[in-house]
Amino acid sequence: MAFGPDGRLYVAQFLAGQISAVDLATGDVEVVVPPDGPLHSPDDLAFDIDGAMYVTDLVPGRVWRRDPTGHFTLVTDEITAPNGIACVGTRVFANEMIPGGRLLELSPAGDGPTVLTAGLAMGNAMQLGPDGRLYYPHMLTGEVFRIPLDGGEPELVAADVPDPVAVRFDRGGALLVLSRGESGTVTRVDLTGTGERSAIVSELNALDNAAFDADNRMFVSSYAHGGVAELAADGRTREIVPRGLGGPFGVTIDLGGGVHVADHYRLAQPADRTDGDVTTTELLNFVHGVAADGDLLHTTSQYGDVRTYDRRSGTARTRARGLNRPLGIAVRADGTLLVAESGAGRVVAIDHDDQVSVLAEGLGRPVDVAVDADQRCYVSDERLAAVYRVEHGVPALLAGGLGTPQGIAVSDGIVYVVETTHRRLLAIDLATGDVEIEADSLPVASPAGPPRLEPDLFVVPGLPGMPRPFAGIAATAGGSLVIAANGDGSVLLLHPEETAP
Fold first, then answer.
1. What pTM was computed for the model?
2. Weakest mean pLDDT among 164-173, 444-453, 480-489
3. 3-state secondary structure of 497
């Protein structure tokens, strides 16, 4: 986040691939750079003295310049996982969010970058200090360093800082370091005297970035909860942009009717169907598929893991590792987990002892799975544009020629599938095979439109990149449907009487 020349707060949205500007007086949000623009995964931004905006595009490893007229030029692609960025006059600096990363000065004229220092333990948001040096965090080691603008030996400023994710200075020159952890801590460090520290414990956790306005008011963002809030010195927050969902991805319904969504950085639950508020069940990184089973929530991560989260104890257990982009998940009556292993073209089963076996293979790109009352498995395949029922280990075609089918659910003899190309909900009658349109104009992310980069699953080995979008669906016991509408970050509840064409 950074204030632009027009006084608005500009916010990079990593998962959405866009940049918005916030009017702090009204809370109005304008999309300045839409998802179909040149940016892939914007992570941080800064403005130079001439009003040009520089943006780090993390996953493809690029830094862009947007001039005041809105024209983009590529500054460099000679950088890995660029994250933190700072402008000093017309000079531009960026760092790499990898172990052993570099801090670079970039050339807007197109010359190669200059290395100021290397060996960063995952850099992130940085800023020029009042002493004319750049301050930046080491996320892995809990340290803050500073370095002269022309390079030299980095100097340790603070150690044992909890989960440092961003270094910011207020208008009085005080150093504040944001924590990305569950505590919501902002550490204030006295640089002019004893080095004494104090802590602000925010009502908002999973902090990510901050900016100070001309009146020295501090505004913060959260990578997990979305939104923008003003943070007071006593930790209280005032909402500017409401918290929301980063996806959502998968969705499920527990026995009590509670709706749970997998939201990339967390498990979340709509707090009330009338006000649109969302509460965080658990900060559980990189969750994309979810299935409820009593007090258990079984989850997948496209980065290879299947986990089971116990809501009673607040603990998570890893059920499988190293799968190839697992996505949709369902649970059979005997507790066996069924998982669409999207990258491997198969459906796998995970038993009580966490043994993985292949239920069906030879698919294209399976996205979601569902189980009917007879415990038969159904799978959607976005590459083969079809929905299948698995019979004796073989996928049997139920409906083909679909437009990128993703989320799938079975209820009362009907298979419901979210068809994302056409942004509609289809109903497949299992008795007749008829396919009907149940609802259209759904706000789900469509794969149509200008071609974009295929999301890179990993930036470097072990460092997660971009997940593939996933519009999940679940059916309630009463026949209603819940859809994860990842096109606008909402969760939809469709009652039977409202799902006519």
1. 0.92
2. 444-453
3. helix
